[in-house]
Structure formats: structure tokens, C-alpha cells
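Let's practice the habit of predicting before peeking. Look at the sequence and jot down your guess about where helices and strands might fall. Then scroll down.
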Amino acid sequence: MDATEAARREAERIHQAAVADGVDPWNLLELVSREAARRDLDVYALATGDSALKGGRAVLDREAECILYEDIGSAFDRAFLIAHELGHFVLEGDAQNVVTGEVEPGRSAEDAPVGVERVLDYGARERREVRMDLFARELLLPRSMVRHHYIDCGCSSADIATRLGAPLQVVQQQLLDSLLLPNELPAVVEPTAAAAVPTPDPTQMEAANHRNTAFQLQAGPGTGKTRTLVQRIESLLAEGVDPISILVLTFSNKAANELCERLAARNPRAAAAMWIGTFHAFGLDIVRRFHDKLGLPANPRLIDRSEGIELLEDELPRLSLRHFRNLWDPALDLSDMLSAISRAKDEVVDAAGYRALAVAMEQTCGTDAEAMKNAEKCMEVALVYETYERLMTARQLIDFGDLVAQPVRLVENDAEVRSALRARHNHVLVDEYQDVNRSSVRLLKAIVGEGRNLWVVGDARQSIYRFRGASATNMAQFSLDFPGAQIAQLGVNYRSRQEVIDAFTAFSGTMKASTGSMPLHLNASRGASGARPEFKVVRSTDDEISAVAATIKHQQEAGTAFRHQALLCASNARLSEIAEGLEARGIPVLHLGSLFERPEIKDLLAMLSMLSDPYAVGLVRVSTMSTYELPLQDVVQIIECLRESKVAPLEWRLNKNWPPELAEASKTALARAAMLFDGVSPMGNPWSILTTWVIDRLGLAKSLYLAGDARSRMKGLALWQFLNFCRQQPSDTGSPCVRLLDRIRRLVLLSEDRGLRHLPGVADGIDAVRLMTIHASKGLEFHAVHIPGMVTSGLPRNNMAPRCVPPDGLIHGSDEMTGLEAVKAGHDEEEECLFFVALSRARDRLFLYASSVQSDGRTRNPSKFMPSILHHLIQPPIPAQRHAGLRASSALQIVWEQKPAWTDSQVNLFERCPRRFLYTHVMKLGGRRTETAFMKMHNVVSDVFDWLKTVHAMTMPTEAELGVRFDQAWQSKGPVDHGYAEDYRSIARRLVDVVVETRSRGVPAPATPISLGWAEGEILVRPDSVARGDNGQIVVRRVKTGKPRSNAFDDIEYTLLHLATTQEYGGSAQVEVTYLTSETTQPMEITERKLKTRSEKVQDFVRRVRAGDFPVKEEARTCPRCPSFFICGDLPAGAITIKKV
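Done guessing? Here is the structure:
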């Protein structure tokens, strides 16, 4: 239990004791006044601005034994201020007087780990104030009390809020905490041996007491590095060092909080005086303190990746890009370039420096075409970097990369700032030093000077954050960065059994990160267990999951609880599949997965979309929810009726807009669904809307709480995490609900939602197997660890170069290597470190798994990491496996009243995702994402293109005709109100001109649809144009808006175009494709083998559509862009009849 939860439980105990003594729990002012009196504290209400308040809103004066508070607001507001000061008195013993500024009664216990929130850290004082806010809320309305009135008395959240006189959002947050989060005490976990050691070992003592030179402590896994760090701080305090002069830097808010709590338990005043936090939080503190020197406001706005893309999107039409030119949806291209820019900031390379490196590449590439291409790409990134910095400066914004890079430049170049920081921070300690990047090292060097009071601890073999610039080389170069530095090593492992230590020690000898580190020699404090790690090889990946399930269950039956076991993977890609497989085999798991793609979250997102969607397409998903079930046929009928009626948003709730032939049962269910939206507006606060649904209208929170099983608890945790994310959203114009949905799409597209996969800390007590990435397991330990996927390309993963390779010379320590070589070398090193981290998480038992056969029957080889540790493993016979039950068929019952006919583009959509094909072309749901300026620009081009194909199929328009038609299309469909409308207009007109130029080649011929028929259905292929060349050859053309892809002709639409062309015009006809963005034309090429395979696939498509086979095809970069993203999933029950397609 952390300090915050302990504070809340103490507040609840005090509340319950007061009620037992006869205090009215509904009279909040009386309750807190009585509690203050019980502690001999007088309470005085003062006018706002009274000098006794010392500029705050409340004061705890220990000498005068009183609480002063601002006499303003409701009775709840005043009671909350008193309760907040009571928290300081009760929890902090004889601490000093307290002045409280702002309070936040409705705050969450944890910040959402995504976007800006993930970097905003609190100092010790801020953490303390957060704890007091939660203490105060718990004292006034304990979770157990609001849960009792909600569950047992049937009160709504509004009923409770009204009776208490408390804000509704405060009551709702308490209900969310009490119903969705585990409420029992976390299970008592066997303390680690490190915690059980009564005195430090000699290597820890020696390290903690080092003085007068820079010092690096190399601390292998489980050696008690945090304990040693705390000892170091306590030894400094014991010598009389002023705690204000101590700076402790970590790499996560969680680590900073835990360290602060450990220190506060022994010395709360000193802990509050030290600066303990992350490098980024410290950088932000410097930026705020010296903002005037940086030309920034006192509290500059920090933007995340998503906002950075929005900033650049408007400028993109003006930039001369070729390799990264994307005129449809440039979000991913911009994200890749912003990653490259962030990486440059990690190395403290500004836009000018980036361009200089790119120019140097150009000058040295000679006739090497590939080298020239890489140099050109770097030049384009330099251009975007310059543009980005110009926009950021103009708007006085900063991003994550600036939080360290800007302070580095400031401290290195400004003697006044440097002196101020050195004077304040005499003793600097750094945890997890292997995770520092070059900008962090330079910041340290600027602050500590020769470093005589610098003390760092880390393990080069656990350096797993190369993507943010961390490198084991910084550990190896410590003595070069800080001349005269001393290096020592911890020698006792308190975590793992000898057999586990032997395995990861053997692997460490093969690691690149071991170069420059002291050899790993660890004594096992816990000795040997007699059980060696196991390596289990099975046939298929499904068998692998079965083997994992059987082993987990066996360990549980042998005494290792589910919650003490963890399954680790290198990436999130396979965790969801394994989680589903383990649950199907009866193993409870703790795994959120992709939060926004969980069924219970998608249900809410579909409902939220119905606030602004006049056709209520979200009904497709809502109709699968209990008590709101509608037959699929009726859902399609309702949406079709709404579309034909052209109703406004939320008018779908009116029964006059429903199909008259709708069955009574369906009308009743639809009316129930409509009631969910009573009093709800798309302009409302999304958190309030969603929370009211979850607590009161849907009753989700209640049903999950009462169910109590592991799966229901996971759903509750997911809902809590989702609602916690929704609390704080960037402000902008338009509907807040639409903005939230758009932001979620972008976060998923950019994989910026990964932080939301991490479970809230209170989940620790749930007895379920922990599933997580190896990155997420860093710093944790488990009694039993399971590592599946120990095969080639599983771990290590394939070494894929990023789309934006850094310029040569950018990465520190990459001398004599190109940028690409440096990236690939870093990847190889990090994969080794990941495996080392995974192995060393195990306390008692370690299990590795591999499958031997691929899905196509070919042999799968074991990971190249295995040979170095095989002699420390055993390969036992595979135990009886727990197989999952067979899944029910997902085929849709579909009746075709006539033989279906599809276009080639529709077939292509089926290949990309059969479920999207169903939504779009069978159910005809329509819908689309919020249109960007790029999309609107393409709508203009498509409109003119359609006009050309119909009105001028065999002719060429005059320039005047083309101009008139373009103007009409622009005015009706273009981004006419955009700030850079003329730039978009110029691009659109150029794309149209490319279309016209393409059509001008050869003599036009009729481009009639060509039918390819089968018994189950027909496919109509529509060429964009047909022409006869000078040599008489027929050329069939297809026009695409984007750029050519290396495997583009593998798409099934080109096979169809080829088959249709051959059928209609003979084998001598040529198919060619024009790409408007790159202004290039390519003749289609396809081998006979591929043609045969693809032809068979076309026939299979026709059969599958006729049979109702429309499975979901998940794809990270496609799904968030799909109009049906929020409704995708299970379909309403029943068959569907299709009259016409």
C-alpha cells in the first residue's frame, strides 16, 4: 500500500469512528470541526485576503494550535479546507506549519500516463498536497459510505451529492474509485530478502559513504541499488548536509514517488525539502525559473506528439517535400519526422545543426544513389525541424525534447544560471544512470562542474530505452565525462535464486553492453533452490499458450499465487493474443491491452459518437449491449431511415424518425437506448457524460463491482483508466466529445496510447497473472517469470530501420558509423538488454518457451540468445496442456435477394478488412472521420475527376471549362476557410492538371465497366480511362492519389484490372497506374504465379461474401482511420436480407 492509499484509509477510519460517536455524517462542517476539537485545534473562518492566511486559502498553525480557513463557498468547500489541514496534522506528526494554496476536491489519485500528463511530476510538497486533498475527500465522504448508499440504498450519484451538498463530480470520482478499483487491502507479499537484511552489506556501505569525487555504482539486478541510494542520502543528512541542497534525479514519476515515500517515512521534513523527480520534470523546473532568459512565459504550454502534428499539418502544403510528401493523411509521416527531431534534441542538436549534418552527408555521398537518398531525406527532416521550431517559438510552446535540451543550452551558455543551480544543488544523485541520454549527461556536467559531489547508480546491461537516446556508452564513458571518477560494484543479489543468477550471468558475458562494465559476479543471498530454469519447446504458437497455461497452473498449485507470476514479451503485439488464450484456458490475467479497443470502452465510444452523428451508426454496437438488444436487420433499417430523412444529431431519439414498420420489441429497446441520452449534449464535458453513463444510466460500475471475478475486475480497471484519461483534454473549438474521439483515433494511430496499458497501482492485490512488456517490467520482480516467443524474430526482434534515419554523426559515440549503422547497432544492443532484464525479474522460477513450426508448416528456429544459456536450463517433457475451447463460427446469416455485384475498389476494401467491407458496402453504414484540410482537398480532386470520366469520357475539356468546374468543386468541397486555403488550392489544381495530362496521352477509347462473373456473384471493373497508343496498343489506366509503394501491384484491385483488361482487350493490352502525389506513371507487372494465386483469391472473395464471412482484420495503422473504428466488434443478433447492392 502506498502512502496515498494509507492516508485515505486513515481518513476513512477517522470518519467511521466519528460516526460511531454520534456525529452526523451528512453535516460535513460539524464533522470536521469536531475532529479538529478532538485534537485540541481551534478553527477560525477568515475573510478572503486576510493577512493571517499568508496568501493561501487555509493555514495549519501548530504553535497557535489552530486551523484558519477562507470563509467562502459552500459548506462542502469550507469543510474541505478544514479537512485538508487536518490531514497535515494527522499524517505529518510534528511537521512545520502549513499554508495551503489551491485545493482540488475532485482530483484523481493518479495522473493519466499519456500526453503531457506523463511528464508532469510533482516535488515533495506537491505530492504532499495531493495526498491531503485525497485525505480530505475521504474524510468527508469515504468510499465505503458512498458505495453503501449507491449499492445498498439505491441512491444515484446525484442523490448523494445533493444530500451532502457536495459537487457531483467529487461524488462520482469517489464512486469510481470505490466501485472500479480493488477496495481490499493488497495481499501481503513475501518481503524481498533485500528488505529483510538488517544491515547493509559492505559494498552498499562503502558506496553510500563515498565522498569527494564523482562516483558511479554499478548495481546488477536485485543488488539493492535503491536501498543504497537511500543510505547515501541518509548519510549526507546525518553529516548535516542541508536537504535543500540535495538533488535526486530519476527516470519515472513512480520511482520518484517511491523514493520520496521511503525518505519521508524516516525524515519527512528533509524529504519535503529535497528536489526529487525526473530529468524532464527538473528541466521543466529550470525552464519555469529562468523563462525570461529563454523568451518564454512563466508557465509555457507543453505540447505532446499529437499536438505537434496538428501544428505542422497546416504548414505542410508550403513545404517542398518529396520523400515525405503525403497529401492525404500526413499524420504518420509527420510523426516519424517528429521522432527524428526528438532524437536530435536528445543529442542537443538544433535545427541548424541537423541541417549542417545533412549537408555534410550530401557532400560526401558521391555517386552512391542510396546514400544520396538518405541525405535528401535528412534534408527534408531538417526543413520540417526548422519549420517546427519557428512555429513553436512564435506560439511560445515547448515539447518533451525541449525539457532537457533547452536547459542544457541555457546552463552551458549562461554563467549566472549555472552559478545559481550549482549554488542550490551541491549534492546530485542519479538513479538508473544507464537510461541517461546525451542531453542529460551534458546537463549534469554543466551543473556539477568537476562532479566531486555527483553520485550515480545504474546497470549498463539494463539499458532498454534506446528510442529516447539512452545508451550503455554513457555508463562506460563516465570517467571521461567526469575525470577522476571512482567506480565500484555491488556484489550481493538479494532477489534471485542461484539458478536464475547463473542463467542471466552467463548471458551477460555475450552482451555488447558488458563492454566497459565490470564483470558480473553476484553472490546469491537466497542461495539455490534446486530447480533450474526450464526451456519448453512445443509445435505451434497455440501449443505454446497451452504450455504456458499448464505451467502457470502447476506453479499456482505448488504455492505460487497467480499474482506472483508474470509473463513478459518484448512488445505489445502478442500480449493480447496470449491474454485471450490464457483466459480461455481458465487462467486469470491482469492485462489491459489497447485500452481504446477493449469492448467495454468501445461501447462507450460508440455511444459518445451518437451525440454528433445524425444517423446514429453507433447503434450497431449499442444494440449488442444487454437491455438494448436490437436485431441486425432492424438496426440497418433504422440507420437507412435516418439517412433518408436527413435528420439532425440526436433526432434519432424521436420515434417519429423511426421506420414505421419497426417491431414493438425493437421500438421498446430503441426507446430505452434513447433515454440514455436525455439531457446530454455534444457540447457537454465528455468525462461527466461518460461517468454518468457508467455509474447511473448503464449501471456498469455496479454490475462489475457485484460480479467481483477477475475478468470483471479487469473491466472495472479499464473503465477507471479510460475515465481518468478523459478527465483532462486539450482545449480547442468545436464539440468536446468530437475532439475526444478524434484525439483517441490519433493516439492509437501514433501508438501514443501505450502508457494507458499500465495498470493503476491499486491493482496489485488482484490475484491474476501479470502480463506486460519487458520494458514495463523494469524494476519489478516476480516469484515465477514466463518468457514466451524465444524464436527467431521473436526475441531479438527484426532489426528494422526507422523511416527517418538520423544523419551521420548525430548520435554520440557513433564515430566511423553511418546514421543507419548506429541505429542498427543500438537496436541489437537494446534487444540483448531486454532479454537480460526479462531473465533477471525472476526470484524463484524461470520458464522460457518456443514454438518449432510456423503457421505455413515451415520450421521455426530458436532465438539466437538461447545457446549461451542452454547449459543452465533443462528441457522437461511438456506437461498435459490446457487447450482452449473451439470458437463459435462468426459467419453472418445473410440472404441475397439477387446475385450481388461488386466493383474492383470494393473488392480491394474486402482484402484490406472484410469487416469494413461489410459495414461500408453491405450494411451501407457510411460515415467518415472528421475531415482534415487534406481530405477536403482530395474531395475536390475526386469531384473534378468524376466529372472528367462522365462528361469528358472521350474528349478533353477546354482550359476554361476545367477552370469553371474546378472552381465549383473548390467552393463546395474544398477547405475554403483554412488559413492556407490558397496553398491547398494550388496543390489541388496541380493534381487535377496531372490527371488531365495523363488522359491526354494516346487516343481516348470508351472506358466501359468490364464484368467478371462467377456463380456466387459478379465483379465490375471500371478503368479510370482507356486509350490507344501510337503503336495501336490499348492502355488501361488507373489513377491513384498517393505515391507508389514497392508492393502496390500485390493489391487485389490490380489483379482484377489485369484480368478484366485481358478479357476485354486481349493479352497485348497494357495496364498502367498514375500516382498524382509523386506525378509518376508505372506499367503494371505481375508474375504468372502471383496472377494465379491472386485469381484464386478473387474467387474466394466472391464465395466468402456470399457466405457472410466478414472477420475483423486488425491493423495498427489502418483501424484508427476507419470510419467504423468505434463500432467495430460483435454484431447484433439475427440474419440480414440484402435487397440490392
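How did you do? The first strand starts at residue 42 and ends at 46.
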